[in-house]
Amino acid sequence: MAIGSKNLDAASLRDKTDEELTEELGKAKESLFNLRFQAATGQLESHGRLKAVRRDIARLYTIMRERELGIIPVVEPEAAPEKAAKGDAA
């Protein structure tokens, strides 16, 4: 993907849990707020970054909506590996 964050492509987002998607959405919204603030004060160096962050937010909302509608399966949170290892050793 040429525009946007490296770790926010659709394939990697589909592998994340709902909580992780919500966390990424919060980070992206905070980043967008900061970029808009920089643009308003004339300190923004890369105007393309605004477009990239808006696209990231739209991508996150799309993945969340697809799960809500049942278009793609919901990823279940993984069990803690240290708990499983302790249970096998005992």
Automatic annotation (TrEMBL):
<keyword id="KW-0687">Ribonucleoprotein</keyword>
<feature type="compositionally biased region" description="Basic and acidic residues">
    <location>
        <begin position="12"/>
        <end position="21"/>
    </location>
</feature>
<dbReference type="Pfam" id="PF00831">
    <property type="entry name" value="Ribosomal_L29"/>
</dbReference>
<protein>
    <recommendedName>
        <fullName>Large ribosomal subunit protein uL29</fullName>
    </recommendedName>
</protein>
<feature type="region of interest" description="Disordered">
    <location>
        <begin position="1"/>
        <end position="21"/>
    </location>
</feature>
<dbReference type="InterPro" id="IPR036049">
    <property type="entry name" value="Ribosomal_uL29_sf"/>
</dbReference>
<keyword id="KW-0689">Ribosomal protein</keyword>
<dbReference type="InterPro" id="IPR018254">
    <property type="entry name" value="Ribosomal_uL29_CS"/>
</dbReference>
<comment type="similarity">
    <text>Belongs to the universal ribosomal protein uL29 family.</text>
</comment>
<dbReference type="GO" id="GO:0022625">
    <property type="term" value="C:cytosolic large ribosomal subunit"/>
</dbReference>
<dbReference type="InterPro" id="IPR050063">
    <property type="entry name" value="Ribosomal_protein_uL29"/>
</dbReference>
<dbReference type="GO" id="GO:0006412">
    <property type="term" value="P:translation"/>
</dbReference>
<dbReference type="InterPro" id="IPR001854">
    <property type="entry name" value="Ribosomal_uL29"/>
</dbReference>
<dbReference type="GO" id="GO:0003735">
    <property type="term" value="F:structural constituent of ribosome"/>
</dbReference>
